[in-house]
Design a protein that fits this description.
single chain; about 160 residues; Rossmann fold; 7 strands; about 30% helix
């Protein structure tokens, strides 16, 4: 586990950028579970992740709360999901979850519990929370070899 404290949004974005840059060279799909209360910086992290995987600055990265999935082209395709509005695992089939998984993708999932219930294993889980001074505490938990390798090669 790696723990980082950030005081500003740009620092949270920078962590996302570094992870995205490292994920760019992977030859397999890379998946990230993002957990934390509303406003803790999940989308801010994904904005940095987008820059790291090569999504052009012209794309405005927003939370896909109502769309469920936002997809962005880059050197690695970024699929940003928000599963908050889904209530059953079967709904993952309806949104085409299996279709977005590919070797050219980095998949970042906000509110990932429903997907985790299906047995899907994320490469990294990132938990975001605030401390008493409203700094962001970002905890990164790798799962499996790909997640461990990536985090060992990223300087946070």
């Amino acid at each position: 586990m790696i723990r980082v404290v950030t005081a500003e949004a740009r620092e949270t974005m920078d962590i996302g950028r570094k992870i995205g840059e490292a994920a760019r060279s992977l030859t397999a799909c890379f998946s990230i579970a993002l957990t934390g209360d509303l406003g803790t910086g999940k989308t801010c992290f994904v904005q940095g992740l987008a820059r790291g995987v090569g999504v052009k600055k012209g794309y405005y990265i927003t939370s896909p709360t109502f769309n469920i999935i936002n997809e962005y082209p880059g050197e690695k395709r970024l699929c940003h999901l928000d599963l908050y509005r889904l209530s059953e695992a079967d709904e993952l089939d309806y949104i085409g979850f299996e279709d977005i998984l590919g070797d050219d993708a980095v998949v970042a999932v906000e509110w990932p519990d429903l997907l985790a219930e299906t047995g899907f294993e994320f490469d990294i889980e990132i938990r975001l929370e605030f401390d008493k001074d409203f700094n962001r505490i970002i905890s990164l938990f790798p799962s499996g070899q790909q997640g461990s390798n990536l985090l060992s090669n990223v300087s946070l």
